[in-house]
């Protein structure tokens, strides 16, 4: 008798995106970080109940933390756990990456913000970026370039 292997498809895709970050900042470098989560948080993420629009990353004691991200608890969460939607979550990065990010944030005037949260196999990953702020005229120039690219594609499509 042969055994049949059942391969469970992993749930792929994006959980949450920070579209505001792409509008407000120049993105210099991107990194992929893991998230340290509790069990109820993973269940909520599978339901897509995460917001990272107002979140940012801080560094304390050579560790990186995600502050301000909201994971709304499910109604069917366990009764013995008190879910806290906006708790500070630890980011899982290598020491070299943390030192690089800390040096850029402390000395060069960069900021560190999350761009998106997604599934990678069965793990939750957070795409973070080293960013510099845009001025109002920079935002206008970016919008103007985007409009021009759209018009150019429309003209050449004909």
TrEMBL record:
Localization (cell): Cytoplasm
| Main location, first listed in the record | cytoplasm
Q: Name one Pfam family in it.
A: SmpB
* Entry keywords, A to Z: Cytoplasm, RNA-binding
Q: Give the GO cellular component terms, alphabetically.
A: cytosol
Is-annotated flag, keyword Cytoplasm?
yes
One example of a Gene Ontology biological process annotation: trans-translation-dependent protein tagging
A GO molecular function held by the record: RNA binding
Q: Which InterPro entries match?
A: SmpB, SsrA-bd_prot, SsrA-bd_prot_CS
What PANTHER family does UniProt report for this protein, alphabetically? SSRA-BINDING PROTEIN (PTHR30308:SF2), TMRNA-BINDING COMPONENT OF TRANS-TRANSLATION TAGGING COMPLEX (PTHR30308)
User: Which family does the UniProt entry place this protein in?
Assistant: Belongs to the SmpB family.
Task: Give the protein's function.
Answer: Required for rescue of stalled ribosomes mediated by trans-translation. Binds to transfer-messenger RNA (tmRNA), required for stable association of tmRNA with ribosomes. tmRNA and SmpB together mimic tRNA shape, replacing the anticodon stem-loop with SmpB. tmRNA is encoded by the ssrA gene; the 2 termini fold to resemble tRNA(Ala) and it encodes a 'tag peptide', a short internal open reading frame. During trans-translation Ala-aminoacylated tmRNA acts like a tRNA, entering the A-site of stalled ribosomes, displacing the stalled mRNA.
The protein, known as: SsrA-binding protein
The lineage, from the top, is: Bacteria, Pseudomonadati, Pseudomonadota, Gammaproteobacteria, Moraxellales
Name of the gene encoding the protein in the UniProt record: smpB
């Amino acid at each position: 008798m042969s055994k049949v292997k059942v391969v469970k498809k992993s749930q792929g895709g994006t959980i949450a995106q920070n579209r505001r970050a792409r509008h407000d900042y120049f993105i210099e470098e991107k990194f992929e970080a893991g998230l340290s989560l509790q069990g109820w948080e993973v269940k909520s993420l599978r339901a897509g109940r995460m917001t990272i629009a107002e979140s940012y990353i801080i560094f304390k004691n050579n560790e990186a933390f995600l502050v301000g991200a909201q994971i709304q608890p499910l109604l069917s969460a366990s009764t013995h756990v008190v879910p806290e939607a906006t708790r500070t979550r630890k980011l899982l990065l290598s020491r070299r990456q943390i030192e690089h990010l800390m040096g850029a944030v402390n000395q060069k005037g960069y900021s560190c913000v999350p761009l998106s949260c997604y599934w990678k196999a069965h793990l939750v990953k957070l795409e973070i970026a080293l960013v510099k702020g845009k001025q109002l005229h920079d935002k206008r120039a970016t919008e103007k370039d985007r409009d021009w690219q759209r018009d150019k594609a429309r003209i050449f499509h004909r």
